[in-house]
Amino acid sequence: MPHSETAHTFQVDLRGLVDLLSHHLYSSPRVYLRELLQNAVDAITARQAIDPGAPGSITVRTGDTLTVTDTGIGLTEADVHRFLATIGRSSKRTGEGALDGAGLDAARGEFIGQFGIGLLACFVVADEITVLSRTAADPSAAAVEWRGHSDGRYTIRTLPASTVPEPGTTVRLVPRVDTAEWTSPDQVVALARHYGGLLRHEVTVVGARGESHQVNETPPWEQAHRSPLARREAMTAHCRTLFDFTPLDTIELDLPAAGLRGVAYVLPTAVSPAQRAGHRVHLKGMLLTDQAPELLPEWAFFVRCVVDTTSLRPTASREALYEDGTLSAVRDALGERIRDWLTGLAASDPSLLHRFIDTHHLAVKALARYDDELLRIVLPWLPFETTDGNVTLEEFARTHPALLVTRSVEEFRQVAPIAAAAGLGVVNGGYTYDRDLVHRLPEIRPGTSVTDLDPATVTAHLDAVDPAAELRAASFLAVARDTIGVHDCDVVLRDFQPVTAPALLLDNREARHERTRSSLAAESDGLWADILGSLRQESPRAQLVLNHLNPLVRQALTITERGLAVTAAEALYGQALLLSRRPLRASESALLNRAFIGLLTHAMHQPGTAAPGSEPRKEL
Ligand SMILES: Nc1ncnc2c1ncn2[C@@H]1O[C@H](COP(=O)(O)OP(=O)(O)OP(=O)(O)O)[C@@H](O)[C@H]1O
């Protein structure tokens, strides 16, 4: 027997849908007011398209109920059936244009709404919504009232036209008690300002006692100002009100092709490159989001923008930008504009450039690595840590055309004093971006050379000691080599400046890794130990360079007693370790303690021996 087929239509559980929207699409119940304002704006846009002289105002009334009244196109009874009673259907797509179809593209230029779900946001704060409307398209049409409930029931009735004297629409909500915080009069004023501050139609919020608040104002970039200075001051004041900081400078943004205008405010304090600023993006005046880092390229983290655009698309939550070709073109164009501002500063306002670089040099360094033109302009201005102190590369290269750059901050700390005394010019390349940038100096400043600093370069600048002196030091050096050799470190004696530095530890990363490997090898056996052992032979060892010119070393070299020589060698090694300013391992801290106790014990058991020039011994 054939099975009979029956046709059905999907049923929508409205409560479930509203729950989904409020918990998964919208970040907060507050978006209900944005959706209401947006529908009002779109309705006015539609009416003015057929009657350019039609009024365009929006009035929000607070109290026991909340109403939003607009002077827009209004709805006929047929419209109500078609658009209000069908979720997902919108009059803002031409024909039955699909969400990504031609209909949407054609209409998008005009309207903010497109999805046909906005009104549902009102069910997040109300169980009942009433729409009372009279169309502007047909003067003889009756007024129509649609009353919808959050459980999915709705009623429609027509009323005499006189019930709504002027064309337009009033949406009325009866606020729910549990979400009353979002519909309180103060909150409504704040929300209307937040979302509608840049709307082009007049928005007024009227309180329960009749007091009214004008919500929107002309953005500063659209206002006429007496002078460029007055314009600048107005922008600065705007930034203070909006973002709560006084900008270092303001960069006006104008991309006619993208229908975008606005301003980028340069932050007055340094921010981490990882902490990208949230930009405020308005869509046809309506605030879309105040947290859109994707508006600008990553490197531009030193500005905060506020823009109004007609071309960017919102996501369905209407709280973020839809990532499409337009957004990426806008991002590139805005990045270009900010870069032009920066490169232009060198010529127009060097002192501002200085202040900017003082504050944001990390950002600029990040940017300059990828941008040759910018690199050429800003590199001479950027400060680097060098053996001449914190100076610009331009200044440094004047006295040191052959620059050496370290791979780490630690290496710089170890060798900087010795290199400086030997007349070498060393730049600390250990900070983020610095080494890359220093290496590019010869492109910009021909005649300059840049080489990575390795321990051998420094050793080559340390003078060999007189053979007779080396011979006199031989027995101490032998003990020192035995003692320090267990730490995979050689000991040599050299003459070098400054005299005040007793010892220098030349120790690079590879040598340190080698120590880790050898300690692992000591703990392992079999094949693993053999592998580690063979690696070990190829690795460079660290070097403890004792300064023969230093009085402390000279005295140590005269020690004849083995125990004291061991302690002195450990103390010199420990001191060099401390000077290298890298974190000490447990075994190194133990060595330092041992050396100190050893010296103290020795001193306490040698009555009457005082160091030359020291105070005579006295009882405590
Ligand atoms: N104030 C109003 N005046 C005239 N028509 C309105 C008004 N509010 C809503 N409508 C009609 O109801 C339809 C559905 O509104 P809704 O807010 O749900 O979606 P939308 O605005 O079309 O799209 P989106 O979901 O993107 O906001 C609109 O397309 C419009 O035809």
TrEMBL record:
ATP binds at residues 35, 39, 70, 169. It comes from the Bacteria. Keywords: ATP-binding, Chaperone, Nucleotide-binding. One of its GO terms (molecular function) is unfolded protein binding. Signal peptide: none annotated. It holds the Pfam family HATPase_c_3. The keyword Ribonucleoprotein does not apply. InterPro entries: HATPase_C_sf, Hsp90_fam, Hsp90_N, Ribosomal_Su5_D2-typ_SF. PANTHER family: HEAT SHOCK PROTEIN 90 FAMILY MEMBER. NCBIfam families: PRK14083.1. Belongs to the heat shock protein 90 family. This is Chaperone protein HtpG. The gene is htpG.
